[in-house]
Recover the amino acids of this structure.
């Protein structure tokens, strides 16, 4: 009995240690990010940095306005959401509720395989396949633009949205479905009015996490977004989202220069945007959990 208590205590503190290490590592990353990013505000005011329209770090004097980079990140992410959310959610509904068992296993394997594709492979696909097709079809000067980047990001986000949404749909109690069928509801009515509302908490979380991955993706936007640090005038214009700017310029930036600090400050803005996505996901998850329970 004593040995059992000792083992349980050791396991408890071991798990606590693992959790503590995760928190400490995250804290050190955030500390490093802020330590290297905050000095830029001695050179450029916060307002000018966030809402400045010019990003010319090699000029004399340099300009560090990241508003075009923020706009590029937001537009690419929103368009990716427009593409990925319906496809991911419908795929989850089909796999969870409609597909035969054999088809279900195949589709789940394909989606898991899609989630495992390296981002550089998808970026290469966007460069050599999607970009020439867009350029020829729409008679564009370049196929590296918002539409291309959004489509590839949507492909990356669909597995996350689909997998988590499917788990949420699968976890809906069987009694809810049987009660709906017993009342004479069709399969479509049961899905639309019972299963999906009951799973809204997990579905909303899946959408937010998928979009958080999209807004923080680096390699794809670096390869297929075009790299133009300017406010786009159409969906076929090139943009430079924040992760692409950091990845493209950090390797050639003098250590502890204003440009170096500006890139870290850009990472701070990206960190806060991703944090906002996660906080919204947590809030929406709890809200829809209550709403879904109330509607049943």
């Amino acid at each position: 009995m004593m040995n059992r208590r000792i083992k349980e205590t050791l396991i408890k503190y071991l798990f606590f240690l693992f959790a503590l290490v995760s928190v400490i590592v995250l804290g050190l990353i955030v500390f490093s990010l802020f330590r290297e990013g905050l000095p830029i505000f001695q050179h450029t005011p916060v307002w000018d940095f966030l809402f400045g329209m010019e990003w010319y770090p090699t000029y004399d004097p340099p300009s560090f306005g990241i508003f075009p980079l923020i706009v590029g990140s937001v537009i690419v992410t929103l368009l990716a959401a427009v593409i990925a959310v319906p496809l991911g959610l419908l795929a989850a509904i089909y796999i969870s509720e409609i597909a035969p068992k054999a088809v279900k296993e195949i589709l789940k394997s394909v989606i898991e395989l899609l989630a495992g594709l390296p981002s550089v492979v998808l970026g290469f696909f966007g460069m050599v396949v999607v970009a020439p097709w867009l350029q020829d079809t729409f008679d564009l000067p370049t196929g590296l633009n918002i539409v291309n980047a959004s489509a590839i990001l949507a492909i990356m986000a669909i597995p996350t949205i689909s997998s988590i949404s499917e788990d949420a749909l699968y976890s809906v109690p069987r009694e809810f479905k049987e009660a709906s069928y017993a009342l004479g509801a069709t399969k479509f009515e049961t899905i639309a009015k019972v299963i999906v509302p009951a799973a809204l908490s997990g579905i909303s979380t899946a959408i937010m996490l998928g979009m958080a991955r999209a807004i923080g993706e680096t390699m794809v936007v670096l390869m297929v977004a075009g790299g133009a640090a300017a406010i786009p005038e159409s969906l076929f214009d090139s943009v430079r989202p924040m992760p692409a700017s950091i990845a493209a310029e950090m390797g050639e930036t003098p250590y502890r220069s204003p440009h170096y600090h500006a890139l870290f400050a850009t990472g701070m803005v990206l960190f806060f945007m991703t944090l906002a996505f996660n906080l919204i996901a947590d809030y929406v998850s709890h809200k829809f959990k209550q709403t879904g329970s109330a509607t049943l």
